[in-house]
Amino acid sequence: MKLHAAGTLIIIVSLSVILLTTVCYVLFLNNLWWVNAIFFFLMILIGSLIIRFFRVPYRIPNIVEDGVLSPADGTILSVGPAFEYEHFKDERIKISIFMSINNVHVNSYPISGVVECSAYHPGKYVLAKLPKSSVDNEHNTIVVAQDEERKVLFRQIAGFVARRIVSYPEMGDQVVQGDEVGMIKFGSRVDVFLPLTAQVFVNVGDKVVSKKTVLAYF
């Protein structure tokens, strides 16, 4: 397992602040042994969580030619028909995946094909679990097309804590199912839009894993 390059500056700054806080505590606020123990435990815990958040576990993609893999780790929030307003401008099957702060936040391509759209939109930071976050929050929309019938739109959506979406695809890129797209820093969400003819294989509440879980088949 490695750490994502997008987290390098945050990790360095965070650990520096933790170290400075600890030094100041020892020099000026050293207290009873049990208070010290709680303080040091909290500092170690906070530092560990920040480092853990940017982890990139090694995974071999579960390549499924006719399947759509989950682009994110998380929990299925909703599954059902919805109007896709930005690119297709028609009715699609929408699968929403909520990524908690405990999930791996690196995203991957759900299918192989050509990037037909990659569009970043600044926005607000409401709770990622709320439906309106798809429109109101900072988000990045990516469309990958195998052909005219097999197209998948997925949207990286920043959450209440997240403040930056890292996304690498550019229009015209030839991409491979399971390869990295980028990541969303801290709690967030990914929406996936599929053709109405797709056969969905997940339900609300299911846990999904990026590169591994098959969301649906064309």
Compile the SSE list and pairings.
Elements: E1 2-3, H1 8-28, H2 33-53, E2 55-56, E3 67-69, E4 74-84, E5 90-99, E6 106-108, E7 113-121, H3 133-136, E8 139-145, E9 151-158, E10 165-167, E11 174-175, E12 180-184, E13 188-194, E14 199-200, E15 207-208, E16 214-217
Antiparallel strand pairs: 1-2, 3-16, 4-5, 4-15, 5-13, 6-12, 7-8, 7-11, 8-9, 9-13, 10-12, 14-16
The total domain count is: 2
| Order of helical and strand elements | EHHEEEEEEHEEEEEEEEE
Could you list the spans in which at least 5 consecutive residues all have pLDDT below 50?
Answer: none
How much is the radius of gyration in Å?
20 Å
CATH class assignment of the largest domain: Mainly Beta
Lateral arrangement of strands in the main beta sheet: 11-7-8-9-13-5-4-15
Strand content: 35-45%
Q: CATH architecture of the largest domain, please?
A: Distorted Sandwich
What is the number of beta strands?
A: 16
Main structural class: alpha+beta
CATH topology of the largest domain: Glucose Permease (Domain IIA)
| Contiguous helical run count | 3
State the helicity in percent bands: 10-25%
| CA-CA gap between termini | 32 Å
Largest sheet: 8 strands, antiparallel
> How would you sum up the global shape?
elongated
What is the typical, i.e. mean, pLDDT? Answer: 89
